[in-house]
Amino acid sequence: MSEKIDYSKGIYDARQLGTGRMLILGLQHMFAMFGATVLVPLLTGLSVSTTLLCAGLGTLLFHLVTKGKVPAFLGSSFAYLGGFSIVAPMLADADGNLTVANTKMLPYACAGVALSGILYLLVSLLISTFGIRRIMKFFPPVVTGPIIISIGLILAPSAITNCESNWLLAFVALGTVIVCNIWGKGMVKILPILIGVLVSYAVALVTGAVDFQTIGAAAWFGIPLHKDSMGLFAIDGSETFISAVFTIVPIALATMMEHIGDIAAISATTGKNYIRDPGLNKTLLGDGLATAMAGLLGGPANTTYGENTGVLALTKIYDPLVIRIAAVFAMILSFCPKFEAVINTIPSGIVGGISFVLYGMISAIGVRNVVENKVDFTNSRNLIIAAVILVCALGFNSVGGITFAIAGVNINLSGLAIAAIAGILLNAILPGNDYEFDEGSNEPESASLRV
User: Fold this and answer.
1) CB under 8 Å to 434, separation ≥6 — which residues?
2) Alpha-carbon span 194 to 39, nearest angstrom
3) How far apart, in whole angstroms, are the C-alpha atoms of residue 331 and residue 339?
4) 210: nearest Cα among 349, 101, 45, 338
5) Which helix (DSSP H) or strand (DSSP E) does residue 78 occupy?
6) Which of 8, 136, 286, 383 has its CA 20 to 30 A from that of 293?
7) What is the pLDDT of residues 234-254, one digit of tens each?
8) CA atoms in the 13 A half-sphere facing the CB of 180
């Protein structure tokens, strides 16, 4: 029976393919998100196991909120790397391995992630109350585009620092990603990061740059939650907590735009308008709850994954059930500490090579965001908003942000936070805001910050 199925029109009910094929399709979706998802904990010092668990749980939670209608996978967001680099920066040790300079700061960074999820909930409520067009006027591409550009530029120096530990591995990783992305076909084009890591890791094995000591000591089974990174235990009202919140929460303004782009892209791929049904308010709510949960459990922020949208387009299997199977596979893998130990042996030179192109692509995506939405920079209003955002983000970041006291509590605003606040205020104050969000179209296109 399955040989007679017409794949050209797309499959919306994967059960007709049989259990075996559904499981294989689920594994494929897990591998599609895998390379980018596990790279985030390597760049932040978070646990790989916790990250996989949060990706799986977050995806299932998103599907619950959206009534199982949207075939979207939620993995780790790269947009928040800028916030983590400020609150809990990573440094290379004597062996060239990345470590968190102050591990006590990780829970505070995760607490900021959790609070940023609540911002999603607020925007979802506002959309439900006032309508999407009225709310989106506060977040036009002239604001979100430069913020995205700033995130990549702020991260750029850390990519060079990681590369310096082993330029050979960095160039191999970078070259492989470029070749796969430009000349690759099918799944090779969809999985450039994963392939780049594997190829450069093979070179690291040959050159003796991998330390296997921690793998043998790791157990095969373990609980993927670690109290020392859970944001739940850092919500204490301290100055450190408040500063982390002000640093990380504004990043959600950029990732919400990413979310809208990804939902539009999934709609275009499947032929169903998910912005209308189940509604953007529901998809934002699902993404926000998943991000809040991940932060509380000690994982990175969740976000809809463009890699999995690519798999949808490639296979034409649009059933959300397949995505949920992938989420379960990710959760199962999260209970294997030995697997995490293998991932942690990846040299920082490889991480640098991957992030070299990754961080640049984040900024390039911001450029694409303003180009595709035809932001007119001959208009002085738009030029001023973009200029202020870029200078605030990069300038204040270089001096550690600004610190001020409210009711005896010292609050530190990062460059990104200042840029977001300045951009939104200028956009609201300056005359000429003519941006109109079209919920009936599939624009803007996917602007995935994980790449």
Assistant:
1) none
2) 9
3) 13
4) 349
5) none
6) 136
7) 888 788 888 888 888 888 877
8) 22
Position 54 scores a pLDDT of 94
447, pLDDT greater than 80:
no
β-bridge pairing 98-100 and 402-406: unpaired
Residue with tokens 């294997």: 336
For the chain, state the CA radius of gyration.
21
Closest by CA to 255, choosing from 267, 266, 263, is 263
Q: What is the pTM of this model?
A: 0.75
Contact in structure between 88 and 207 (CB atoms under 8 Å): no
Q: Which amino acid is at 83?
A: G
Phi/psi zone of residue 242: left (φ > 0), alpha (ψ -120 to 50 degrees), beta? alpha
Secondary structure letter of residue 12 according to DSSP? S
| Residues 112/244, Cβ–Cβ less than 8 Å | yes
Tokens of 241: 């907590």
The candidate with the shortest Cα–Cα distance to 292, out of 235, 218, 363, is 235
CA atoms within 13 A on the CB side of 380: 2
Q: In which residue are the tokens 């709510």 written?
A: 285
| Alpha carbon of residue 52 to chain centroid | 13
DSSP type of residue 448: -
Closest CA to 437 of 311, 188, 264: 264
Which among 327, 328, 295, 282 is positioned nearest to 308, based on CA atoms? Answer: 327
- Both tokens of 216, joined, read 């043998």
Query: CA 97 → CA 43, 50, 91, 198, 345, distances in Å?
Result: 11, 20, 8, 18, 8
Pairing between strand 402-406 and 409-413? Answer: antiparallel
Least confident of 99-103, 130-134, 263-267, 286-290: 99-103
Residue 444, exposed/middle/buried by CB under 10 A (0-12, 13-18, 19+)?
Answer: buried
What mean pLDDT is predicted for residues 340-349?
Answer: 80
Long-range contacts of the stretch 396-404 (C-beta < 8 A, 24+): 397/86, 397/154, 401/86, 401/247, 403/243
Residue with the bigger pLDDT between 65 and 177: it is 65
Question: What is the rounded average pLDDT for all residues in the chain?
Answer: 82
